[in-house]
């Protein structure tokens, strides 16, 4: 996934991210949610059997548009980070990011159409998902969705809890989670990549208009306690969050800081990750949210505008992150801090860009045709990074040579 300061790894990010906030996605995941899903024959009926219809008035969702993306980024800032509960789940996994349609949620998390029906039935507006995994492949997925109203969120949670037991291969059993006042579904008898026995559990919990879904793998016997801790952290984050009324979503500002004009327009079609993020929203896309939180808050981080595009003709993803700080001294401190992190913690190999030899630049090699580069430029209160993923060779400098000077010119006045 090519995203804000996340080490590039999956070339399909551009296409998939665009689909999440469009009309859905053609990728199909069968059964219950899981990280790094694969397509296969459905293990459940493909003829959905929906729950009883709403007895009250469900407020319809607004049309998907720029405001939908802005609301998704608001939700990002209050989505529980897996590493907050399980510190060793520092690896990125999929799916993650904004969801503007119930079909997008169903297509990437579930796959047989019934979750889509339930979410739409109860007024799904928008959501944000995040995923973290440990070295043995044990993962936590967190999805936070905005629904029509509190009663609809509660009804959706009840319907989806029942549905969860009917998904998969018939090995899922109910599990009581008394500290949440909820029940989930549990599947025992799994194993991680190291061969250790694991259980899988997931649960749906309402919170006002918001609907929380958490899925995780854990060492055998520990999953209920771990999912309870993750959901409790999520519910705490939602206590101060006010979802935007549906009729106001289309008018939400997508660039309240006015940073967009200073972020380079890269080749290809924009994805729905594009827009402004506050600190908390940014950290849901960061490689190391703990370290980066400290670095950014210590230097007066004002916000970031993130632009991503996918160039289908070249099979390349592009990303530009434009950060703002109060002073040039603070910009320089973060500039140096990011460069150090790239070289020491994030797996980047430094290289010298011919066009701007002094720019900190790093390359990530993920196999033939999947080489990524990231370079930084800064001036005054602005710091920018430019990412290109899908290069054929580590020394293919031509695309970055063309783009980084353009980004420098945009911010140096």
Automatic annotation (TrEMBL):
What InterPro entries does this protein's entry cite? DUF7373
- Protein origin, superkingdom: Bacteria
| Residue spans of biased composition, Low complexity class | 28-59, 179-196
Pfam families, sorted: DUF7373
Where the record annotates domain DUF7373, the positions are 67-253
- Which UniProt keywords are present, listed alphabetically? Signal
User: From which residue to which does the signal peptide run?
Assistant: 1-22
Q: Where is this region: Disordered?
A: 28-70, 168-196
What this protein is called in its record is DUF7373 domain-containing protein
What organism is listed for this UniProt entry? Klenkia sesuvii
């Amino acid at each position: 996934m090519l995203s804000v300061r996340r080490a590039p790894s999956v070339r399909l990010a551009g296409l998939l991210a665009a689909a999440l906030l469009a009309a859905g996605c053609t990728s199909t995941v069968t059964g219950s949610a899981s990280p790094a899903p694969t397509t296969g024959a459905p293990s459940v009926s493909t003829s959905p059997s929906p729950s009883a219809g709403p007895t009250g008035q469900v407020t319809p969702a607004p049309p998907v548009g720029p405001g939908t993306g802005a609301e998704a980024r608001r939700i990002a800032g209050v989505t529980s980070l897996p590493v907050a509960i399980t510190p060793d789940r520092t690896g990125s996994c999929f799916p993650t990011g904004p969801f503007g349609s119930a079909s997008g949620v169903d297509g990437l998390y579930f796959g047989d159409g019934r979750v889509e029906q339930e979410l739409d039935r109860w007024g799904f507006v928008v959501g944000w998902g995040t995923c973290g995994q440990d070295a043995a492949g044990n993962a936590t997925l967190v999805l936070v969705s905005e629904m029509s109203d509190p009663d609809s969120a509660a009804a959706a949670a009840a319907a989806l809890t029942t549905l969860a037991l009917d998904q998969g291969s018939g090995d899922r059993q109910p599990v009581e989670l008394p500290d949440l006042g909820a029940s989930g579904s549990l599947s025992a008898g799994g194993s991680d990549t190291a061969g250790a026995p694991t259980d899988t559990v997931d649960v749906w919990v309402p919170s006002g208009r918001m609907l929380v879904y958490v899925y995780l793998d854990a060492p055998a016997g520990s999953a209920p306690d771990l999912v309870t801790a993750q959901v409790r952290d999520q519910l705490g984050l939602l206590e101060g969050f006010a979802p935007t009324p549906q009729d106001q979503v289309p008018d939400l500002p997508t660039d309240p800081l006015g940073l967009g004009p200073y972020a380079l327009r890269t080749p290809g079609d924009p994805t729905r990750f594009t827009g402004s993020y506050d600190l908390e929203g940014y950290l849901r896309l960061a490689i190391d949210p703990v370290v980066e939180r400290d670095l950014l808050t210590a230097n007066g981080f004002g916000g970031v505008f993130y632009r991503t595009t996918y160039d289908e003709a070249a099979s390349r993803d592009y990303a530009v992150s434009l950060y703002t700080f109060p002073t040039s001294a603070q910009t320089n401190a973060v500039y140096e801090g990011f460069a150090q992190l790239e070289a020491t913690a994030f797996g980047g190999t430094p290289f010298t860009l011919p066009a701007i030899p002094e720019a900190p630049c790093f390359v990530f090699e993920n196999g033939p045709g999947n080489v990524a580069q990231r370079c930084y430029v800064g001036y005054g209160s602005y710091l920018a990074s430019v990412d290109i993923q899908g290069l054929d060779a580590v020394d293919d400098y031509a695309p970055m040579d063309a783009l980084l000077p353009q980004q420098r010119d945009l911010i140096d006045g």
